[in-house]
């Protein structure tokens, strides 16, 4: 189905999804999100009004996950593939399987996968309850 043949409502939903995921429309007319987060578990932590989210993260081969922030800390561990962590104001940091990083709350960052296979990570987020996991950065 091409974008021209989609109903107005379907286009609005697709546009919202593309904005959130930071996906670009491929020439074939199908969306391929550069970043996919799959929540594994969510639960309370010992800090009042905070929760932890553990997620599997995948960054598509050759893709860049758009600039965003988190309302809490991110702690991630690379399972496979390779990536570049792009934190505003810092040089790109190259990462591969077995390496980890920590990003404090509110820091604008992005990620890029320069490799030919998906980058796979486990991400742990400690967030204020009721807040979105991520927010696109301006």
Description:
This protein has 138 residues and is mainly beta. It contains 1 helix and 12 strands. It folds into 2 domains: 32 residues, no CATH class; 103 residues, Jelly Rolls. The strands form 3 sheets. Strands 3-4-11-6-9 form a 5-stranded antiparallel β-sheet, with no helix packed on it. It is globular and about 40 Å long. The N terminus is likely disordered.
Named at the architecture level, the CATH assignment of the largest domain is: Sandwich
Multimer state: single chain
Number of domains: 2
Strand line-up of the largest beta sheet:
3-4-11-6-9
CATH class of the largest domain: Mainly Beta
Domain Cupin type-2: 56-124
Signal peptide: 1-26
Protein name: Cupin domain-containing protein
Keywords: Signal
SSE layout and pairing:
Layout (H helix, E strand, L loop, with lengths): L7 H14 L2 E2 L5 E2 L2 E10 L5 E10 L4 E6 L2 E9 L1 E6 L5 E4 L3 E4 L5 E4 L6 E10 L6 E2 L2
Antiparallel strand pairs: 1-2, 3-4, 4-11, 5-10, 5-12, 6-9, 6-11, 7-8, 7-10
What key phrases describe this protein's structure?
138 residues, 10% helix, 1 helix, Jelly Rolls
Brief summary:
By secondary structure, the protein is mainly β. It has 1 helix and 12 strands. Residues 1-30 have low confidence and may be disordered.
């Amino acid at each position: 189905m091409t974008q021209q043949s989609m109903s107005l409502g379907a286009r609005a939903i697709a546009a919202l999804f593309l904005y959130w995921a930071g996906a670009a429309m491929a020439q074939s007319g199908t969306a391929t999100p550069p970043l996919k987060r799959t929540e594994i578990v969510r639960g309370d932590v010992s800090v009042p009004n905070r929760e932890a989210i553990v997620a599997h993260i995948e960054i598509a081969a050759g893709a860049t996950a758009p600039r965003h922030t988190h309302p809490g800390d991110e702690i991630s561990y690379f399972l496979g593939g390779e990536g570049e962590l792009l934190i505003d104001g810092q040089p790109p940091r190259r990462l591969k399987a077995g390496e980890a990083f920590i990003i404090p709350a509110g820091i604008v960052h992005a990620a890029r996968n320069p490799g030919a296979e998906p980058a796979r990570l486990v991400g742990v987020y400690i967030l204020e309850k009721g807040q979105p996991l991520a927010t696109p950065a301006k």
